[in-house]
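Hello forum,

I keep getting stuck at the same step: I have a sequence, I want structure tokens, and every attempt I make locally crashes halfway through. Rather than fight my setup again tonight, could one of you with a working pipeline run this one for me? It's a single chain of 369 residues.
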Amino acid sequence: MTGRIPAAYFCDRVVESKVLSQALLSQMNVVVTSPRRMGKTALVDFVFQQEVIQKDYFTIDVDILHTTCFKEFIYALGTAAYDKIASRSDKMKRLFIATLRSLSASFGYDPIQNTPTFDIKLGDITTPDYTLREIFNFMEQADKRCLVVIDEFQQITKYPEKNIEAVLRSYIQKMSNANFVFAGSQRTVLEEMFLSSRRPFFQSAKLMQLDAIELSVYQDFVVGHFREGGKDINPEAVEVAYRSFRGVTLYMQRVMKDAYATTPQGATCDERLVEQLIDDFVAENDYRIRGLLAYISEPQKEVLYAIHDEKEAQGIVSAAFTKRHRLKSPSATQSAVQKLLEDDLLTRNGKVYSLSDPLMSLWLDKNIR
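Reply #2:
Ran it on my machine without issues. Output:
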């Protein structure tokens, strides 16, 4: 399923929605962490669609996973601010043009509408720090309060520029007409950013951890929707998908949607059908997963496969782990793991390591011996 999820098909997250909504309405900044594809963006979007927020706030979502430098961050933020605020009215559009003086020579013009257009290119941002200040100044002057979600916020730690965290923090802490949701899938990195007293964002936001929805909740939800459509599904079939995908929301949605579409009126979806749909889904992603594996080195693959063999691996730099999986050395393993964590192919929960993507785990089950 892509795009916005209708409320009727938004499963659970009752507590999380309430906590996030209350925090935002109380003008707090929030950090939302979870594994990839667990529903962070959908949760924020769901909360942003509440009537009280739609009526009284501008909502701005910025995904920075694709960005590699500070200038790209500013471009993404500026584009989102224009699309979600300035484009709503001529008044806001004029304010945007007047406030972003560092880009004034780069704006286009629509002769039909008799209004300026946002036609900025990445190369037009020649004074990044100053342009960022102007974007935040524009939000400060907006005629409604701004709620800004920056998705995959940990990406800023990979930028080549120095002190980006300090620069952003210096502007954000002065904002009186906006608050922020910092979302991300690398929990360890985000917790270090917001819980370490050595970092600029220390204790500047409320932390929320998004875990998998409970199996029983999923079962009730799916069975209910099947029955509304004159169909049925065995709760055990839902469990097959849940266990296979470790409760990852995006994959559950996909396979349950396929199961519903495949099950005829008056029939029952069983475990065998779900298993077949999972196999089909894994096969559909064969090219993508092979592509991901093609970009990591042989030592990294060896460590990835070793951790996959154990499902949840501990003591990965021990002599026993090294010997058991015939790895080169504990130090080589540590180096490989660090890169795999950075690339989000591995995840770490305390001292336990596992593959981030359960779909890749299923693919490895079928293709790597």
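The chain has three domains: 7-209, 215-284, 287-367. If your local run keeps crashing, start a new thread with the error log.
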